[in-house]
What we know:
Aspartate Aminotransferase, domain 1; two-stranded antiparallel ribbon; four-stranded antiparallel sheet; elongated; alpha+beta; pyridoxal phosphate binding; Glutamate_decarboxylase; PyrdxlP-dep_Trfase; single chain; 4 helices
Amino acid sequence: MWTHPNNIVVLTVSGAIMQGYRNIMDNCQENAMVLKEGLERTGRFNIVSKDQGVPLVAFSLKDSSRHDEFEISEFLRRFGWIVPAYTMPPDAQHVTVLRVVIREDFSRTFAERLVIDIEKVLHELDALPSRSSGPALQHPNGDTVSEKDLARQREVVSVWKRAVAARKKTQGVC
């Protein structure tokens, strides 16, 4: 800090402040890498973000023939995560991604927990009939699924979606 000849106090950015900021950003990048590596280990996602710049992880399903990124986003809300899914701009609308921005308060533990919750969601979705195709008559484990079981699963999903929609109306996100 120094005083200008007109008695104006001028603050200079010290090396310590810059080093603190650098430490925060390095930590955010490390946590983004933990998340990215955890998603890669599932074998189910393509990572579409770069490792440089803003600490974020954008990813998409390798196979979205049965379920899509919007379903993953929706199911993650039950665990308290808000992971937006959206389509890319014109000329790339066929690409849908999920995006996690790593903030200062997003710890390594949070990154590991998010991967675990995403794996739970994938397991739940694998047990449900495909949203995009006709009724699946075979469970992922190979068992035959009756029409009655499919109808029951669809009803449970429908009730759950209504509950989530009602919750969204009463609890806003800042």
